[in-house]
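Human: I hope this is not a bother. Would you mind checking the protein record under this note? Thank you for your patience.
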Amino acid sequence: MRKQLEITILRSLFVVGIASFFNLIRKPPIKDWVIIFLLKSYIASIFDAIFVKKGYLKYPVNLFKVFDISVLFSYLIFPVTCIYFNQVTRNSSLIGILAKCLLFSAPSALAEHWLERKTNLIKYKKSWNSFYSFGTIACTFLMVRFLMIIIRKESRRQNSRSAKRKGEKN
């Protein structure tokens, strides 16, 4: 009975995640949101795989049983949240970015803590706790945000260089 409830939670999160993804990418620039989604998925899956392999985390109940990591979290929920974080911090100052990072990381860590205590969806092993989850979540939000600053600057630089070349040819 309990396992069925946990599968229902995962399926519900999957539906909400898919709906949220399509809702979030409607806002321009779609290219940025897809890059953020893929970057966050990549980073989250690496960290998740390392922490599971080292024995800090375990996902006893999973929608996709072929993976040791939480595919739903690493490839959908976490990246969708990161898109939204990047959307609300797009024009923020450094202080604003850090404050909003706390506002996004704390609920994520609290939700994970609740799931760890009340369900079999995630289990902390060894010395892992919610503070480590919070720190990891916050760091990855900031890491992706920083990478997007670099990507946007380089894209603008390439566009201006390309425009100059076109102007020289005409």
Remarks:
- The beta strands are 57-58, 123-124.
- Residues 2-161 form one domain.
- Residues 130-169 form the longest helix (40 residues).
